Amino acid sequence: TDGDRALELHRVRAGYGDVEVLHGVSLAVDEGEVVAVLGANGAGKSTLCAAAAGLVAVTEGEVRLGGVDVTDLPTHRRARQGLVLAPEARGIFPGLTVEDNLTIRLRSGAARQAAKDRFPILGERAHQVAGLLSGGEQQQLALAVALPDPPAVFLADEPTLGLAPLATRTVMEGLAELRDLGTAVVLVEEQAAAGLELADRVALVELGRIGWEGPPAELDLDRLTASYLGED
Ligand code: ATP
């Protein structure tokens, strides 16, 4: 039933001012599932995440968390219900240093050390302000604090942006672990290959609509290519 979906977007229309970007997007993610949201630059992937988190206004349709309609709830209330958009919404405190972020979210020194061992950049950048880290670095911080206390929903918007292959692998492994802990994971990727590897299901966003949805094994390359080229 609908109540079982960790996150559900139902015919969501959203955008910026008079410009509608999402033209009726429906997407559901279950507990312990990774859905990769793929699509061309500007297709609306980030807007989809922002609409789920309440960072852009939904003009029509519904957003549900665990079956509960949260369409009219502000971002912090959705966060309290277990929705994290990394790093913008409950992912990190951008005005605090990396160390302070770790201290606030991870109680024991051992947990903080484990986070730094797993994501070495967090040790190297301990005294920098989190909001000034690169996108991929902020994603690592958001993951590090989410893993010991897995949220119901974790939306990762381009989590590997600008990361070297080793850090990319670490992030993908972190997302897989979150999934295994029961979190519903939405992985937004412009690089299709990375997203496909981890995904249980794929959603192709095309000009503000879900153009195709299904398991990665059923996604044919022509379909994917057309989606990225904006052909239908
Ligand atoms: P990208 O990977 O480039 O972020 P995307 O698929 O995530 O692509 P969105 O960022 O959701 O796409 O952008 C979708 C459309 O919304 C684009 O046309 C973009 O110009 C527009 N847009 C995004 N953010 C804003 C904003 N804050 N104000 C106005 N328009 C915006």
UniProtKB/TrEMBL annotation:
- Name where it's found: Cell membrane
> Boundaries of each ABC transporter domain copy?
7-232
Specify the protein name.
Answer: ATP-binding cassette domain-containing protein
* Originating organism: Iamia majanohamensis
The stretch of the full-length protein covered here is 720 to 951 of 957
What protein family does this chain belong to? Answer: Belongs to the ABC transporter superfamily.
